[in-house]
Amino acid sequence: MTKIKFDDLLGGVLVLSAGFGTRMGKIGSILPKILWPIGNKTLFELQYLYIRQFFQGPIYFNVHYLYQDVLRYLDTHKEKFKNVHILHEPEILEIGGAIHHLATKLMNPYQGKFLVLNCDQFLFMSHQQVLNLINFLETSPVALASIQVPNQGYNSIVIEKGILKGIIINPPKELSTIETYAGVCALDLAKIEPCGGKSKFFQSVARYLDFPVAVEFVDHEKSTYWDFGTKERYVSSLLALWEKQNFLTSPFTHHQMEEILCRQVEGSLQNLNGTHKLVFKNGDLECVVNHDGEAVLKFRNIEDQVGVELISKLRSLMASTGQTSTHK
Question: Order of strands across the sheet with 284-290?
Answer without folding.
Answer: 276-281, 284-290, 295-298
